[in-house]
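hey all, quick one before standup. I had two proteins in the batch that finished overnight and I want to keep them in one place so we stop losing track of which output belongs to which input. First protein below, input sequence then structure tokens straight from the run.
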Amino acid sequence: MTVSIPARMAKSTLEDRHGRRFEYLRLSLTDVCNFRCSYCLPDGYRKAHGAPSNMSGEEIRRLVAAFAELGLWKVRLTGGEPTLRQEFIEIARTVAGVEGIRKVAVTTNGYRLAERAQSYADAGISAINISMDSLKPERFRAITGHDRLNEILAGIAACRAAGLSSVKLNSVLLKGLNDDELDDFLAFVVEHDLTLRFIEVMRTNDNPGYFAAHHLPGAYVSERLETLGWQKQARQAGAGPAIEYTNPDGPGRIGIIAPYSKDFCASCNRLRVSATGKLHLCLFGDAGIELRPLLQLDSQKNELVERLQRLVATKAPSHLLHQGNSGATPHLASIGG
């Protein structure tokens, strides 16, 4: 006797036609940010007229549960600044409680981190990435619009005291603004046994002039690391796109996220959903795809799972940044970077 398997059950993973498997979701909770970083929101956040509301906690639970059924096990909460969302702790706890989700992470600018780190850990967050674009207070203020470097440093210490298993720093690599701090950053991560990711600044629809003035290839960092004997590491399961190096003489790790490098998209393992419930198959895709109508009832789960499988199968092999095409992304805060 031959037993037919329902189409929805025939495939328990999210894969595209290029052989890439997706186990990692970047979930934006808000596009609001209280910093004015020169590479993202230099004029500060401005609410779009008539913008839809953010997903509710129940909609988020249904969304994450559908992804988890398809094998996705890591969720990163992003923004804007995700911790500005009033229900941030409740949402984190909800996501951490979804069956199949093994890791909940957050990317933050460090706002009120020193006083909140323990509550994040208690809510089920185990990994945190903190933006820190300079080790010099005046330069930090010039890049971010806020004189809060000391608060960020206190937040790092608080995250460690709270027992978060992974504490990483993100620094956008900016020619003429912070590229002369490379060796200082290396010394900092060695001293404090941290991981720091250098991220190439990316061209978006609102920053072509800034990009032309300040873009610096990730090779600038990798060449310096290799000169100093740092060792390139194999990519770990569930990791993001960073190429990581370890210090041969002790603690500290450096990652490089270089979207303009050759074959950057070949190892893509992440999907994005905006705060308003749109699926973005690529950070630099042409548009988001509305999922919200399928997030209203628990009984819609099967339909949502099937739709996610169909959509992910259509993911393009690569972004078009090399052609100067940033898709529909106005700035990185709009869908969570």
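OK second protein, same deal, sequence then tokens:
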Amino acid sequence: MNVLFIIGRPAAGKTTVARRLKARIEDENPVVRFVMIDEYTVLEKNVPNLKPHALRWHADGTFELLDRTFLSKTALELEARVLSCLRTHDLVLCELARSTYNDLFDDFDRRVKASMRILYVHAPLELCRLRNRRRRHDQSRSSVPDKVLKKYYTSDDSQELMARYPAQTWILDNSEDNSKILARAVDDYFERNSDHLATTRRTESQAWSVATNVR
């Protein structure tokens, strides 16, 4: 029972990476029981419960959290969902974005930390801003206001994270806007981490299930 946290700036390519891994896992071992959790769905579900002063809506349908402490509450809910899924699944793929990760994983339950790996999808800020603008043009619900990207995601603490969790962290470079290059990088990660991704062959009699965006 393992968990892989797929992290990075908004529009860094986390969802594309998660979908590629999902396809590789299903192809390699279709009986693996795994689940995909996107923190954005957790956040989005709780937005209606926020006080009016805690967030600001924009004309394009995106929103900005003014009360950043709400992210701590979201992390607690996310942790609870991961723990619940670890009891019933072989693998949990968990996608999330933070301005910094220095303390996030330290505060997680020891059972989560004992079974986790971290895949840091790195893309330069300006490229993320470009991709984010494309999302807004396509009316994607996961687009974020550009000023939020500039305000909270200018720094990159991937090296600090690597120093803190050297055996658990992998930095995946997505600095080129090229889907084929990204696919090769994901495949390389998959091949080198197949044991943690629970792709060791099992008997066909074992049950399997995939639940996308657990809410």
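Flagging for whoever picks this up: Residues 201-215 have pLDDT under 50 and may be disordered. The CA atoms of residues 79 and 109 lie 8 Å apart.
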